[in-house]
Specification:
- With about 425 residues, this protein is an all-alpha fold.
- It has one domain: Farnesyl Diphosphate Synthase, CATH 1.10.600.
- The protein is built from 20 helices and no strands.
- It has helices spanning about 1-10, 15-35, 50-70, 75-95, 105-110, 110-130, 135-155, 160-180, 185-200, 210-225, 230-245, 260-280, 285-305, 310-315, 320-325, 330-345, 355-375, 385-390, 400-415, 425-430.
- The chain is globular and about 55 Å long.
Length: about 425
């Protein structure tokens, strides 16, 4: 990490408002984590074997009918009206029958504004990089949807902007680059030094296509936000960049929990990521909002780390979960994560927003579902008694949960090359819009 220290003082301003927030929020949420309850969480919804089977049948029926309709997308405009009515009926029937999501939550998630934001993003992403992979696009879209939720939490309509596009695209570019085991740590640090200089407003010449794309994305953000008027936007970008560099230490194999601040690094990386999202949305934030969005980022990072245990173990990436895996059961640390989720969301700042309670419940429900799917995926890392108790709260049977994403990806890939010469993503956007 010598390279980082060489340019840290020239670029990273530890006295900036955002840097101070990051330091303060990291310590706050670390204390909240260590003080958190390790007791089995209060999970209200239970599901027996037949409930699970019924949900699986409902879900399979919905997916199959939805895919079938996508494949039948008509060429004639008049027939598309009937087609759209049919596919809307398929969606509404599923949400009316399912208890996984309420109709009010569905209205928010499938609002015209959010669909339009997604459509514009996909089109812009493909124009920016015609070779973008399904995984990279999915990763960028996930950040876009987090930003859209942040917009709604801040009483704004979900919408697409150049800055939002650029920051969301930086994720597949920088995260995957840093996570790659095929690139040496020295090369990573050299490129990240140039990127940090660019983020700090210095004039830097791109040395390769990768840097050229990174710099273009930063230019788009600068086109929307003036550096002098919105310094916190760019300081937040520098903070997430600094956190990503620190996370390189997590890629060492066999690192112990007392050899590096693994949890603090994860908290900082996750927290700064969503904090930057919020600054990109609003330009500036109240202290209360900034703290919540940092905590929300911590929560999402922990959920991701729990889901990615096996990949992290294989790649030698150390997180609080991969360090514990195969040495102790993950029972208590998972209880802590669920209780942390509830605590964070129950104490989130409340604005004068009609949707705020729905959004809060939606975020909580989504995060707990992510955790449940991670438990199902990593059954061997839990005690038998704990897994059996937690299994009662799974929405589906364990095998179904573990195969669901693979099944969806397989079905999507079969229709990826469009019917009638129209891209599948375009057909889905057309179907979802009012």
């Amino acid at each position: 990490m010598i390279l980082v220290e060489n340019y840290k003082d020239k670029i990273f301003n530890d006295k900036s408002k955002v840097s101070k927030q990051v330091s303060m929020f990291r310590d706050f949420f670390l204390k909240m984590w260590w003080d958190g309850s390790k007791e089995f969480p209060v999970l209200t919804k239970k599901s027996d074997y037949w409930d699970k089977r019924n949900k699986e049948k409902q879900t399979d029926k919905f997916i199959n009918e939805f895919v079938m309709n996508l494949e039948l997308f008509p060429e004639d405009e008049a027939n598309r009206i009937i087609w759209k009515r049919n596919i809307k009926s398929v969606i509404d029937n599923f949400f009316e029958q399912s208890d996984l999501i309420t109709m009010r939550e569905k209205e928010i998630l499938l609002s015209d504004e959010l669909i339009e934001s997604t459509e514009k993003f996909i089109n812009e992403a493909k124009e920016f990089n015609s070779n973008i992979s399904f995984e990279e696009l999915s990763q960028a879209l996930r950040n876009l949807w987090i930003i859209n939720i942040i917009q709604m939490l801040l009483s704004k309509d979900p919408k697409f902007t150049a800055a939002i596009f650029s920051y969301s695209m930086l994720y597949p570019y920088t995260d995957n680059f840093l996570d790659s085991a095929d690139i040496s740590k020295t090369d990573k640090l050299k490129i990240n030094e140039n990127f940090a200089l660019k983020l700090s407003g210095k004039k830097v010449i791109a040395n390769n296509k990768y840097e050229e794309n990174l710099f273009k994305l930063v230019d788009k953000i600068e086109g929307e936000y003036n550096r002098k008027e919105y310094p916190n936007v760019f300081d937040s970008l520098l903070c997430i960049h600094g956190a990503q560099i620190k996370s390189l230490t997590q890629q060492k194999k066999e690192i112990g929990p007392y050899e590096s601040d693994i949890l603090g690094i994860s908290f900082e990386k996750g927290g700064t990521s969503v904090l930057a999202d919020a600054y990109i949305v609003n330009g500036d934030l109240s202290e209360e909002d900034a703290k919540f969005f940092f905590g929300y980022g911590v929560l999402l990072q922990l959920c991701d780390d729990l889901q990615d245990i096996q990949e992290d173990l294989k790649n030698g990436s150390m997180t609080i979960f991969s360090i514990l895996a195969n040495k102790w059961t993950l029972d208590n640390v998972t209880n802590n994560l669920i209780n942390f989720t509830v605590n964070l969301l129950d104490n989130m700042p409340m604005s004068d927003n009609d949707n705020i309670y729905v959004l809060k419940d939606l975020i909580k429900k989504n995060c707990i579902q992510l955790i449940l799917f991670a438990i199902a995926k990593n059954k061997k890392l839990y005690s038998r008694a704990y897994f059996k108790r937690m299994e009662q709260h799974f929405p589906y049977r364990t095998r179904y949960m573990n195969n669901q994403f693979k099944s969806l990806k397989r079905k999507y890939s079969k229709i990826k090359e469009s019917y009638n010469g129209v891209d599948t993503a375009e057909i889905i956007m057309y179907a979802l819009k009012s």
